From TrEMBL, chain A:
<feature type="transmembrane region" description="Helical">
    <location>
        <begin position="194"/>
        <end position="215"/>
    </location>
</feature>
<feature type="transmembrane region" description="Helical">
    <location>
        <begin position="328"/>
        <end position="347"/>
    </location>
</feature>
<feature type="transmembrane region" description="Helical">
    <location>
        <begin position="99"/>
        <end position="119"/>
    </location>
</feature>
<feature type="transmembrane region" description="Helical">
    <location>
        <begin position="12"/>
        <end position="34"/>
    </location>
</feature>
<keyword id="KW-0812">Transmembrane</keyword>
<dbReference type="InterPro" id="IPR001516">
    <property type="entry name" value="Proton_antipo_N"/>
</dbReference>
<dbReference type="GO" id="GO:0042773">
    <property type="term" value="P:ATP synthesis coupled electron transport"/>
</dbReference>
<dbReference type="InterPro" id="IPR001750">
    <property type="entry name" value="ND/Mrp_TM"/>
</dbReference>
<keyword id="KW-1133">Transmembrane helix</keyword>
<feature type="domain" description="NADH:quinone oxidoreductase/Mrp antiporter transmembrane">
    <location>
        <begin position="148"/>
        <end position="437"/>
    </location>
</feature>
<feature type="transmembrane region" description="Helical">
    <location>
        <begin position="509"/>
        <end position="532"/>
    </location>
</feature>
<dbReference type="Pfam" id="PF00662">
    <property type="entry name" value="Proton_antipo_N"/>
</dbReference>
<feature type="transmembrane region" description="Helical">
    <location>
        <begin position="261"/>
        <end position="279"/>
    </location>
</feature>
<feature type="transmembrane region" description="Helical">
    <location>
        <begin position="615"/>
        <end position="633"/>
    </location>
</feature>
<feature type="transmembrane region" description="Helical">
    <location>
        <begin position="221"/>
        <end position="240"/>
    </location>
</feature>
<feature type="transmembrane region" description="Helical">
    <location>
        <begin position="46"/>
        <end position="70"/>
    </location>
</feature>
<feature type="transmembrane region" description="Helical">
    <location>
        <begin position="131"/>
        <end position="148"/>
    </location>
</feature>
Amino acid sequence: METAAEIVQHSGGVIGLSWLTIALPLLGAAILLLGGRRTDRWGHLLGVAMSLASFVVAVIVFFELLGFGADERRRVVELYDFLPGGTLDVKMGLLLDPLSISFVLLITGVGSLIHIYSIGYMAHDPNRRRFFAYLNLFVAAMLLLVLADNYLGLYVGWEGVGLASYLLIGFWQHKPSAAAAAKKAFIVNRVGDMGLALGIFVIFTTFGTIAYGPVLANASQASQGTLTLIGLALLLGACGKSAQLPLQSWLLDAMEGPTPVSALIHAATMVTAGVYLVVRSGPIYIGAPTAALVVTIVGVATLLAGAIIGTAKDDIKKALAGSTMSQIGYMMLAAGLGPVGYAFAIAHLIAHGFFKASMFLGAGSVMHAMNDEVDMRKFGGLAPKMRITWATFGLGYLAIIGFPLLSGYWTKDGIIEATMEHSPILGWLAVIGAGITGFYMSRLFFMTFHGKPRWEKDAHPHESPAVMTWPLILLSIGSVFGGAFLIMGNRFMEFLAPAVGRPKELPHFAPFSVAGVATLAVVAVGVAYAWLKYGRAEVPAVAPRGSFLTVFARRDLYGDAINEALFMRPGQWLTRLAVFFDNRGVDGLVNGLAALIGGTSGRLRRVQTGFVRSYAMSIFLGAALLVGAWFVVGNL
Amino acid sequence: MIAMLAVPLLGAAVLVVFPGPARHPWYGAAVSGVTLVLALALAVRFDHTRAARPQFTVDVPWIPGLGLRFHLGIDGISLPLVVLTALLTFLCFVHLVRHRPEQGRIRALVIALLVLEVGMTGTFLALDLLLFFVFFEIVLVPMYFVIAVWGGAGRRAAAVKFILYTLLGSALLLLGLLLVWAHAGTLDMVRLAQAQGAGLSRAVQIIAFLAIGLGLAVKAPMWPLHTWLPAAHTEAPTVGSVLLAGVLLKMGTYGFARIAIPVLPEGAAALAPWLGAFAVAGIVYGSLACLAQRDLKRMIAYSSVGHMGFVLLGLATLTPVGMNAALFGNIAHGLITGLLFFVAGGIKERYGTTELPRLGTGMLARLPYLGSLLTFACVASLGLPGLAGFWGEMLALLGAFQPAAGLSRPLFLVFMAVGGVGTVLTAAYFLRMLSHLTHGRPPAGTIGGGSRGAALLDVSAYELAAWTPLVVLTVVLGLWPKALLSLTDPVVQAYLGTR
C-alpha cells in the first residue's frame, strides 16, 4: 500500500451524520450571535456544550472508522450540490479518513478544553458570550477545512477560520493595537489565499474537477510543470495560514488576541492548516520534486527564523509565537519530505497541539495572576506561587525541547532523522534549530518561573481556578505521552497509511543515531547557556540594548520593515495617484463639459424654474439625440 | 406578466391623481409588495427545466410602422434580476415608513420610486431592442429627481453629472442598437441572439459593440467612465443609493450579457481584451481610491467600481464560467451593496454625517447591532467564501484563468493576477474602515458634532425588517450558489453556443 487507498461512498451510521460535527458549533455560534444579550447568562455553557458534543460525535466516528479494514477507511459522505452540473460541477461532501479524523479529534478535543478554560479566563469580560460565539464559529470553520472532500470546501473553511481569527484577534475592540493586528492578519492571509485560489484554478482546469479523490489519483498523469505550479501555489496559501516565510509577519502581532485564542487558533489548530494542505495534496508534491524541495526549504528557513525571533522576545506570548512558527517549520519540513515525513509531520502537529496549547494556557494562567502583564522581565520566581501552572508548563517545556521520552522527543527526532537521510544540510540546520529551541524555551521558563521575583508592586500572584487548571493538566498528559504513543512501533504511520500512502522503507527508530545524539547534545548546550544567563544570573528588569543580532531578532528579522518598504509605501503612493487622477483627470474633463452645458442652460434658468427645467432639458436632449441618430444610422 | 409593470405604474398614477392621506410610504410598500408577490409567483411558476427559453412572453405590435413590438419575457438571467428589483424596491419602502428624508415631499418620492421600479423591471423584461432602450431611459428621469430633490448638500451637481453621463452613454447605446437593427433587420432580441451575429459583418459588429458597450459601460460603470458614480451615490438619499447600486448598475452589465455579447459575438471577441483591461483597471483603481476615501458612502461607491470590475472581467472572458460569474456577481453585489448603503444611511441618520474622521471610533461598543451588521456587510463585500460575494469574484478570476478560445491567454492571466491583487486590496480597505469605525473606545459625550449625543438608538424594527432579507439571501446564496447558477447557466450556454 504505497499509494493511498481508494475513496468509497458512504451513507448511514454515525459517519453519515459526521456533518453534525460542523453543524453543532455553527448552530451554537448562530444562537449566541443572534440571541444577543438574552443569552449572556448561559451563553458560555452552550458554547462549551456544542464543542463537547462535536467531540463526542468525532470520537464515535473515529471508532466506527476503525471498524472498517485499513483499505476501506477513506469514506465520503455526500451532502449537496455546490455548483450546478454543466459548466461547473462541484458536489459538497465530507471525507472521513485517518488524516481528517486525526485533525477532527485534535480540533474538537483541544478545542473543548480551551472552551472550558475560557469560562474562567474570560469570566470578567462583559462580552464573554460573543467570545464563545466566535470560538464556536472557528471550530465549525476549521472542521469544514479538514473534512471537506474537495479543494473548494477546504477554501471556504480556510477563509472561514481566517474570519474567526480576525474577529478573535480584534476581540478586545477598545485596543487599537488589537484592531491593527486583526487587520494585518487578515490581509497577509489574503495574499496567501490568492495563491491557494490560483492552485485550485490550475487543478480545476487540469483535472476538470476539484474533488480530492479523482485529482489525487490522477496527479501522476499531469505534466511536471503543471504539478510544480500547483504545488508552489498551494504552498503560498499554506505559508499565509501557517505563518511561514515570507508571510510570517502577522502571527506575532496576532498575540493581541485573548490568550485562549492564541492557544487554540494561533498554536494548536488553525496555523497548522498549511501542513494539512501539503500532506493532503501529497501526490501533487510527489510528482513535483521542485515544489517539494521548496516546501522543505521554507520549513527549515522558518524553523530557524522563528527560533531566532523567540530568543529575543521579552513578551511571553510573542516568544511562544516565535516558537510556534519554528515548530510549524519542522512540520512543513517533514511534509516536504514525502510519505517518509507525513506521519512525523502530523504526529508532531498533534503533539505540538498538546504541549503548545498547554504552554499558552499556562502563560494565560500566569497573566491572569499578574494583572495581564506579559513582560517576562517582570515575572520571575513564580514557581512556588502557582504549582500546577508551573508543573504543566514545565512538562510542555520539556516536551518541546525534546527531553528524552516526552512527546516532542519522539516526533521531532523522527523529523530530524528523516531529513538527515533526505538531505544532510537541511538535517543539520534542523539540529541547530533544536539547539536554539532548547535555549529560548529555557530562557522563557527560567525568566518566568525561577530566579528572583521582579514583580510590579501591585502584583499578587495566585493559582488559577480549577476550571482553568484542569484543562492544563489534561493537556500536559498529552504532552508527556502523546509522542511515544503515536511513534512507537510506527503505530501512527500504519494508521495514516490508507490516507497518505506508506513510505517504501519503514523508518526504524534508533535512539543512538548520530543525529539523535547530536540533537540531544545541542539542546543540552542551549539549556545550559540559558541557565547561565537567565537562571543563575540576575535578569535585568529593563531589556539591555543588545547587539546588532539581538535587535535583528527583536524586530522580527525586519519582516515588517521589508513589507512596508516593498508593499505599503508604493501602495500608499498609488492610492494618492488614483485620487489625484479621479479629481483632476476624468472629473476635470467632465466638469469642463458640464460647465459648458451648464453655461447654456443658465440662460434658460431665468425663464424656467424648478425641476421642470431639468426634466424638459433632459427629454429635449434625449429626443434630439434620438432624431439625430435616426438620420445617421438610417443612411448607413 | 404585464402586471409586473402595470401595478407600480398604476400605483404611481393613482397617487398623482389622488393625493390621499399622509401614509404614502405604507401605500408604496403595499404597491411594491404586490409587485414582489407577483415576481415571486413568476419565480415559483418558472419552468426550471427550460430556463434558457423566455417564458411568460407577451408579444404585441406596438408601433407597427416601425416594426416596434411590445415584447416581454423572462428567462434564467432576467428572473433573478426581476426578483431582486422587486425585493429591493419593497425593502426601500419598508425602510421609508419610519426613516424619511429630511426634505419631506414623501408623496413625490413614492411616485418617483414606483416609476423607477417600472423602468428597472421593464429593462430586465424587454425582449425588443428599442423597448429595452425605452425602459433603460425611463429609469433616468425618476433617479435624477431622487438625487436632485432628496439628496445631500451637493445634490444638484451630482444629479447633473449623473444625467449628463448617462445621456451621453444612452446616445451611444441607441446608435449601436439602431446599427444592429439596420443591418440585421429585426429588433427581436430572441432571434438576434439565436442568429449569433449571422448577417452582421465583422466591421459592423465591432462598431456596434463599441457603441453599445460604451453606452452600457457608463452605466456599469466601467473605469474610467465611473466618476458620476461616487458623486451620485454620496449625495443620493439612502433609498436612492440602494436602488442605484442594487439595480441600476446591473442594467449595464445585464445589457452586456443580454445584448452585446450574444448578438455581436465577433465584435465581442475583438473588443473583449479591452473590456477586460478596463475591468481590471477598475478593480485596482476602485480599491486604491477606497483606501483614500474619508467618507463612508463615497468609499462604498468606489467599492462598487471595483466589484463591477469583477463582473465586467467575467463578461470579458466570454466563457460560460465568466458569464455565470458576472450574473452571479450582479445579484450578490445588489444584495450586499444594498445592505451596505442601508447601513450607511442608518449611520448618517444617527451621527448626522458619514465622514469617517467625524464618525469617531467604537461603534461596536456603542451600537452593537448596527456595528455588527456593518461588519457583516463588509465581510460579505470583501468576498468571504460562504457568503454571496465570493462566487462572483472567484469564478470571474477562474474564467480569466482560462478565457474563451481566440482570446490571448497570457493577457488574461495578467488580468487574473491584477484582479487577485484587487481582492487583497478590497480586504485592506474594508478592514481599514472597520478597524477605524467599529473598534476602539466610543468617544465620551457627543459625536460627530451631532446634537443627538450619547443616546443613539440601535437598529430599529423597520430597519431590521428591511435589512434581514438581504442578510439571509447573502448567506443562502453563499452556501448554496447552485440555486442561482442553475438558472443562469442554461442561458449562458445557449448564448455562447457551448451546448
